[in-house]
Amino acid sequence: MSVTYDCIVLGLGGVGSAALDHLARRGQRVLGIEQFRTVHDRGSSHGETRATRKAYFEHTNYVPLLERAEKLWRELECDTGRSLLEACGLFIAGPADGPCVQGCLRSAGEHKLKLEQLSPPEARRRFPNFEFDEADSIVYEPGAGYLRVEDCIRSHLERARQNGAESQFETAVIDWEPTDNGVRVRTERSEYEAARLVITAGGWATDLISDLGFNLKILRKTLLWLPKTGDAYDAGPVFYYVRPRGDYYGFPSLDGATIKLSEHTGGDPVDRPEDIDPALLERDAEPLAEFARQFLPAADPQPTRHATCFYTMSPDGRFYVDRHPEHPQVAFAAGLSGHGFKFASVLGEVLADLAIDGETEQPIGFLGVEERI
To answer: Any residues with CB less than 8 A from the CB of 283 and at least 6 apart, and which?
Structure first.
């Protein structure tokens, strides 16, 4: 006989763990199911850090969600005693008339955010361990920084458990189906029923909402940790460079010995997330090493370690966050397109709202599916 819940959450990465937490805090009897172990390295929510910023070049409509996300991250820190969000500052360097710099300025102007504009000489004086092209325009957001991703997930799961949530790890979901009273979920272990379902399955989302016809593309990405000199890069900032060859970003040192570097653009397409090759390939390392030689003078371009992850890309780079058009008892977030983790706290709240109330106060209309599929 099926076990019955108010809500089931499929996938307990960054967004799923937050959704589980918010549902439990709202008094729901909730079950979270994850195919891998707790805080695993098989998806898109690992690798120590993710950037967080508000002067958002991708779209000004994201800014209110980012402001709410920051408040929720700070509340989670207070509740769990963990340091999750480090506001060490972040700069973006690129063409003055390019979409990144112009998008940052647009968001900052529209939402009255603090953003500084620096010339290359000013940026070199402010950030002596970085190099800049003379043609660069640099925008610096002092309140931006990074999130400690594994601790963010642990914290959401911990608070969810404290509020009565149940979780099953290393449990694969076979399928789900709508019922007269909600949904039925079949796993390799058992069968469960619930009034509502939340799907936050990352690169596996298309298996669970295939009927929506999302054209999601999986891109393999590589993260490198480079040795550094002395105390260089210890205090920040997070950095993002727009170069002719691609966009590169990185983070302050967490261990005092290395600096993390990756490329936001590019990536090898793969058919399935489980097909990703975890090895460090020459074509992964070479462009990052070349970038480091040019712009990170206090770093050694030869990495000491690496990790692989993936982006789940939507066709337009915007998230899908909505209720299923045919089954309104099902809410989902998918296609976070390589920039979603910073939103995990607020997306968890939004998904809880959609599951329980059928609507949310947060401005997610531009992330809906009705006009995009």
So the answer is: none
Query: Which one of the listed residues 25, 68, 148, 260 is annotated catalytic?
Result: 260
Distance (Å, rounded) from C-alpha 135 to C-alpha 287? 21
Residue 7 is among the residues annotated as catalytic for this protein: no
The pLDDT tens digits for 147-179 are 999 999 999 999 999 999 999 999 999 999 999
Domain ranges of the chain: 3-46+150-215+316-367, 91-146+216-309
Q: Which CATH architecture has domain 91-146+216-309?
A: 2-Layer Sandwich (3.30)
Q: What is the 3-state secondary structure (H, E, C) of 250-262?
A: EECCCCCCEEEEE
Does the annotation count 49 as an active-site position?
yes
Residue of 220, 243, 264, 306 marked catalytic: 264
Q: Quick one: average pLDDT of 218-232?
A: 97
Q: Which of 265, 266, 276 is nearest to 306 (CA)?
A: 276
